[in-house]
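ingest -> validate -> predict -> emit
validate: passed (alphabet ok, no gaps, 145 aa)
predict: started
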Amino acid sequence: MRGKRMTVLTCEVVDCHRKPFANDLCTMHNMRQWRHGDVYYRRPSVLLDFWSQVHKDTVGGCWQWLGNIDKDGYGHITYRQAGRTKNERVHRHTYELLIGPIPKGLTIDHLCRNRSCVNPVHMEPVSNAVNLQRGHAIRGHRINH
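emit:
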């Protein structure tokens, strides 16, 4: 068939069975080629991306979060899980990732008093009242009961 182009029925990438969008590539592979110059480009895993935002301080033992910090000084992360977008404070995410679920009704207290620290050894699940009491005591306030 000289001069005529054959119609491609599927994306030209091996094992991709989507309909071609442009340049004999499906929409996804065409966008990867356009954005990254590689149809096989894959975004780094969420965990690799996560740990690239952590600096482990060898002196104080804090694991400093280098990513987004909210107005209160806590590290903040946004990610997708099971098709839904989740917004979470990073210290809570790290605690659950490395230690396990935070018991219901408890909050995480930073024992090091560094709100952007994500080292789970520096965290303890406590009631909100205990967390507030410890925070006030550190700042020199007395709490009368």
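Confidence is low (pLDDT under 50) at residues 141-145.
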